[in-house]
Structures are given as structure tokens and as C-alpha cells.
């Protein structure tokens, strides 16, 4: 979580503390994060458009390379690439699985071997395969190239889970797999957190998944943390609608109307406190306020502030809405309920 936001009193030492980090490729800055901490056993989500720096941040958190400037403390200590202690505790799963040209069993057991674990690797390797929904008896002897894309990704995940890692970094882990594999990858990752207290950091374009499972979701935009953990970031392209108004058509055919964007593909930021769930008989001034219809998909209480946040799905867009305490007295909210959201285009900030 960004340090200036939701630091709660009773948090243990962070598993990561990032300080004044800048990373450049060929002299060009692609990531600039002043401060960011990740609590142990938490689930942090990373969202952001293509090229916003998510993969770079995950690779830095995996200590694959060093940041150009600044530092990343791991459990309070500065850590470096090729540090053996880190390698056995932090593991990264990327979108395209990398498997060694060996059997599935040897791929999964490899980490145990490298870690110098003695004894029989069969049981832990089989447990890890079963955890990702692959029958160990059937798959253990298969070669790396006798697997579908989804199975290969699950083997790659099993090869990480077998180590019961302290940190599992997931970079678009389900982007190129089928729906069934995707579900198995998600549930196995969550099992790691619930069984071993593994900290998860997940970069994904699947906002709904992140909103469902993450303790915190942070937004990266052009390499920087953008807005609060619960800010709404709405991507273009924006088109001029009739009547001099700009907006975009959502995939449920509603129109999301906005103020004049600086360019057709600018990104709109709308604070959760600037969106209101309308009461049943409430009306709005159409000239300044716009209304869209959605469905509540999640309600979450922020412990520090006592604020209630509702995630509302509108087509494939999810907006986070802060529900003021005064409004809670007058309305009941449930997951699955249809709601009308009111917002003022004038409150949109553009980047
Ligand atoms: N090895 C590299 N050398 C030079 N530039 C790089 C390298 N890796 C990434 N970049 C650039 O750094 C920026 C951030 O890339 P990164 O892959 O971290 O973004 P991302 O948010 O993960 O994107 P995506 O969602 O498309 O995976 C991009 O502009 C990218 O072109």
C-alpha cells in the first residue's frame, strides 16, 4: 500500500519497503516510486495500462535486477539479485511459463533439489501438482512439451508452490490460459496465502478478480503510483457524443459522459468520494450530474477510516464508490443489488 494512505496501527514489519525507487532502461525512466510498503501475508494488486511498469516492478521485487536508484528492503534488509536467501523465498510467475526440457516431475521438484532439501521429493511434488488441479500420477512422467498452454502454466505454478514461498509474484498469470486453468491458478494462489501465509503481488488486467481478492489494489500510470489505492482510473478512447458532450459507450450500451478530455485516449481519474449511490426516490440536476446504472459486486470496510467502499460493475467497468456514513443510515446495500450512481463530470481529473 502507498505509505501515505492506509498504514494501520497493528501492522507487522512490512515484507517489502520500497524507498525512492527509480528504474531506467537505456537512460529512460520507466518506474518512479517514492514509497511503497507491502504487509506480510497480504494480497496486493497492480493495475495499469500496457507499459505502465507493472512487470518491471515485479521483476525488481523478485530481485532479478537492481533498481537504477533507490532501494527495496525485504523483511527490513536490503536484498540483492542472486541472494540465495531471497531466491528460495521469493518467486515470480510470468505470463509465458518457462519450463525446463524435462519431465513435469523434474520441473516441479527442481526447486527442492536446488534448495538442497533432502528426503523424498515425490510427496511435496505430487501435492503441488494436485493443488493446481493436475493429477500427479498422470502428469508426473509427461515431458515439458506434452502439455497444453494452461497445463504448462499450472506446472510452472506448481514448481513455485512446492517451495511454499514467502512471496509469490504473479505477472498476468492467467492472460493466456483457458477459463478452467485460470480458475485453478487463482484458487491455488489463494491457497498459498491461506495455508502458508504467502504474500501475493498480482499484476492483472482482470480488475474484478483483483477487487475480489486483494487487500489493496494500486494503480500504476506511466511508471508512477496514480491516485489512491481505491481510485478509479477509466481509460479512453473518448468520443464526442451529440450535444457537445464527450464520453464512451460501455459494453452494456450505457454512455459514460465526461468533461472535455485533453486527448481522445486520455485517462480519467474519478475519486470514490465523488460518486454517490442514489437513494430510491432521489433525483439529480441533469445539467451538472450524470447517472449510470450498475450492480454492487463487493462491499469492503476500510478499517483505518471506517469508510465503506462499494465496487459497482457497469458493463465491464468497475467503479469504486465511497459510501458516506450518513447515507448508510438511510439505505441498505447488498452484493448483487442494482444501484444508480451519480457523479459530476466536473470532478474528473485527466492525465
Ligand atoms: N528490457 C527492457 N529494455 C528497454 N525497455 C523496456 C524493457 N522492459 C520494459 N521496457 C519498457 O519499460 C516500460 C514499462 O514496461 P513494463 O513491461 O514494466 O510495463 P507493463 O505495465 O508490465 O506492461 P504490460 O501490461 O504491457 O506487460 C515500457 O515502456 C517498456 O517498453
Automatic annotation (TrEMBL):
Family matches, as SMART domains: AAA (SM00382)
Example GO BP: transmembrane transport
GO-annotated molecular function: ATP binding; ATP hydrolysis activity
Domain ABC transporter residues, every copy: 16-247
Annotated Gene Ontology cellular component terms: membrane
One Pfam short name: ABC_tran
The keyword Electron transport appears for this protein: no
PANTHER family to which the protein is assigned, alphabetical: ABC TRANSPORTER I FAMILY MEMBER 17
Protein name: ABC transporter domain-containing protein
Amino acid at each position: 500500500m502507498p505509505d501515505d494512505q492506509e498504514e494501520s496501527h497493528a501492522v507487522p514489519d512490512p515484507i517489502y519497503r520500497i524507498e525512492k525507487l527509480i528504474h531506467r532502461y537505456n537512460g529512460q525512466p520507466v518506474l518512479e516510486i517514492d514509497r511503497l510498503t507491502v504487509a506480510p501475508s497480504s494480497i496486493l494488486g497492480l493495475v495499469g495500462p500496457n507499459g505502465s511498469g507493472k512487470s518491471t516492478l515485479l521483476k525488481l521485487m523478485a530481485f532479478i535486477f537492481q533498481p537504477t536508484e533507490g532501494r527495496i528492503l525485504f523483511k527490513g534488509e536490503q536484498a540483492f539479485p542472486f541472494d540465495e536467501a531471497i531466491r528460495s523465498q521469493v518467486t515470480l510467475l510470468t505470463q509465458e511459463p518457462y519450463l525446463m526440457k524435462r519431465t513435469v516431475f523434474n520441473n516441479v521438484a527442481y526447486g527442492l533439489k536446488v534448495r538442497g532439501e533432502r528426503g523424498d521429493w515425490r510427496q511435496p511434488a505430487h501435492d503441488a501438482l494436485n493443488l493446481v488441479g493436475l493429477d500427479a500420477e498422470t502428469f508426473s512422467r509427461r515431458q515439458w512439451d506434452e502439455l497444453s498452454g494452461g497445463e504448462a502454466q499450472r506446472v510452472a505454478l506448481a514448481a513455485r508452490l512446492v517451495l511454499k514461498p514467502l512471496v509469490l509474484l504473479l505477472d498476468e498469470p492467467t492472460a493466456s490460459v483457458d477459463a478452467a486453468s485460470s480458475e485453478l491458478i487463482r484458487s491455488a494462489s489463494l491457497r498459498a496465502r491461506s495455508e502458508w501465509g504467502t504474500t501475493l503481488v498480482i499484476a492483472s488486467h482482470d480488475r474484478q478478480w483483483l477487487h475480489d481478492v486483494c487487500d489493496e489494489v494500486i494503480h500504476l500510470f506511466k511508471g508512477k503510483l496514480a491516485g489512491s489505492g481505491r481510485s478509479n482510473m477509466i481509460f479512453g478512447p473518448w468520443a464526442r457524443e451529440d450535444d457537445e458532450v464527450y464520453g464512451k459507450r460501455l459494453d452494456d450500451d450505457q454512455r459514460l459522459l465526461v468533461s472535455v478530455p485533453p486527448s481522445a485516449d486520455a485517462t480519467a481519474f474519478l475519486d470514490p468520494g465523488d460518486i454517490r449511490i442514489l437513494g430510491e426516490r432521489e433525483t439529480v440536476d441533469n445539467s451538472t450530474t450524470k447517472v449510470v446504472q450498475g450492480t454492487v459486486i463487493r462491499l469492503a470496510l476500510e478499517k483505518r477510516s471506517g469508510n465503506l467502499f462499494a465496487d459497482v460493475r457497469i458493463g465491464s467497468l468497475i467503479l469504486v464508490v465511497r459510501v458516506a456514513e450518513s447515507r448508510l443510515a438511510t439505505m441498505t446495500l447488498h452484493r448483487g443489488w442494482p444501484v444508480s450512481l451519480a457523479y459530476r463530470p466536473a470532478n474528473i481529473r485527466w492525465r
